[in-house]
Amino acid sequence: MQVTTMFDVGGEQVQAYNDALFAQVRQKYAVQPNFLAKFDMKSLRMFGGKGGNLMAFTLDKRYLVKEISSDDQQSMLKHARTIIARQMTGESLICPLFLHFTRQGKNYVVMLNVLPADSGVIWHKKYDLKGNRDDKLLEDDGRDVVEVHKRCFYCHNCWYGCDVIPCCTTMERKRYFLGKKHAFETEFITSDAQAKRIVSMVTGDAKLLGEAGVMDYSLIIGIIRQGEKESIPPADGRNQFVFTYGGWTYVYYMGIIDFLQEWTSTKKIAAVIKAPLAPKPLSTVPPQQYADQFARAMQGKFKGLGSSRPEGAVIARI
Fold it and tell me: Which residue ranges run through the membrane (predicted)?
């Protein structure tokens, strides 16, 4: 049975679900009781992505407030206790959740922004990784990589050959396509101990999410590259891994997001449609298969320096 209490969001009292659970996470991350008192619900906007839900960062950009669908709402009520128990171990990459509330018939979650959003941050690389052909490079040396999809209903260009025939594509599509290829194939070089810990965390998280029956989640990775003598940015409660190699210090931030999608009838239909056409490995597969595929892919991506070629590191440009 869900329990609701009142919580201050933007000076308005809203109903929070099962807040005794989320209070544990807020305490662990030293989140102030009034952390949303100045948040303006009118700041919610539609961002990129397939879900079509509204979201907005708090003024300090440390937290993300996100509207969730009715399906995700049921998933949240069903799995919150299990997910939070995993997060509380301190050995999870699942993005911390601080609040689950309802307002005017719509439902929202509040989570940590897993990547620092300071104005001075320039990302060497930023990735959205699913362990399949939906992997993406989001940012490359401070420049956003814009999503340019090929669609069969785009009659003004070639759908099938546009990634292999130069005259059939645009520079933006080529950059996006090469970024996806790079994201799918690249390895991340860390110390042996860091690689072992990251793989252990990902494997444990994937096991839990597979058993929970959810899929389509991503590992977000942001990498700052700086000189060896520059001061390291604060972790500030995020998963941070620092590794020095070749005269550079690489600061990794990472977290698993979008972990509420269950294996619905819509997903099952999409899987049937995509199976004969889409490149493998597929993104729309049953939860346990997704979990196994996700864990296996990430296990292959994180390499201790002693077990991988230096040229496999993320320093390679595209």
Answer: none
Q: Which helix (H) or strand (E) holds 227?
A: strand 218-227
Closest listed residue to residue 172, CA positions, set 192, 197, 143, 193:
143
DSSP structure class, residue 94: B
Helices vs strands, H then E, count in the chain:
6, 15
Question: pTM for the full model?
Answer: 0.89
pLDDT in tens, 35-46: 999 999 999 998
Q: In this structure, what DSSP letter does residue 308 have?
A: S
Domain range 4-112, CATH class: alpha beta
152 versus 127: the higher-pLDDT residue is 127
Distances (CA, A) of 275 to 190, 278, 283: 35, 6, 10
Q: How far apart are CA 232 and CA 250, in angstroms?
A: 9
Tokens, residue 242: 């620092």
- What is the DSSP annotation of 96-131? PEEEEEEETTEEEEEEE-SS---TT---SEEEEE-S
Q: Name the token pair of 308.
A: 């991988």
Where do the H-state alpha helices sit in the chain?
19-28, 70-87, 171-185, 192-212, 265-274, 287-301
